Amino acid sequence: MSDFVLSCRGLSKIYGAGAENVTVLNDVSFDLAAGESVAIVGASGSGKSTFLHLMGGLDHATAGDVLIAGRSWSTMSEKERGLWRNRHMGFVYQHHHLLPEFTAVENVAMPLYVRGLPKEEADAEAREWLEHVGLGHRLLHTPAALSGGERQRTAIARALVTRPSVVLADEPTGNLDRQTAEQVFTLFRTLSVQSGVAFVLVSHDPGLAAQLDRTMRLQDGVLTDVRL
User: Fold this and answer.
1) Residues above pLDDT 70, as percent of the chain
2) pLDDT-based confidence at 1, cuts 50/70/90?
3) How far apart are CA 90 and CA 178, in angstroms?
4) Rounded Cα distance, 211 and 104, in Å
5) What is the pTM of this model?
6) Which helix (H) or strand (E) holds 40?
7) Beta strands in 84-141 (DSSP E)
8) Fewest Cβ atoms nearer than 10 Å: which of 1, 12, 76, 155?
9) How far from 16 is each of 13, 49, 108, 191, CA to CA, in Å?
10) CA distance 14 to 16
């Protein structure tokens, strides 16, 4: 039984064909333990988001494999991938992607609605997670009534409401001011320790990334540890 909640083995991604080939990832291997927080840094266009999409089963690798909670994306149908993501993964993006017509509680509960949980039960879980991220006083507000930091914390609660094995975050502080970004990163770290959820965060900010357990750099398709 593997101790890792996510493993990449020989992962490669090539776009185009022939002389027009662009290698975004080249034979990348990576392991993530339960409760671990890892930052992926690199220049714009280095393939960080592509790497995240491959880890999340949102794109198909040219070669190699990704295992989530012991199962390989390559062995699943698209329907199975969707069900496995809902069970084991959460996602946070630079843009919060909250649904404007729904309250904070309803937005956070949405993955549980998809699972088929009764609304009362799903909303209770959502309220609990909004309390965890400090938004217990904003439960019935729509996204338009929330600040940027509050929207992103709502998105974090939505990612965690299913109690996933792994949360993947793509530049989650990119639209926030420095102080709010620091608060969001601290929240990620705290929730990782408290809940045992593993986090992989793509960030352009080495200073913020240094707050996590590990920092890795993606450059020229190769992933390496950053020694701090």
Assistant:
1) 97
2) very low
3) 24
4) 28
5) 0.87
6) strand 37-41
7) 89-93
8) 1
9) 10, 18, 38, 40
10) 7
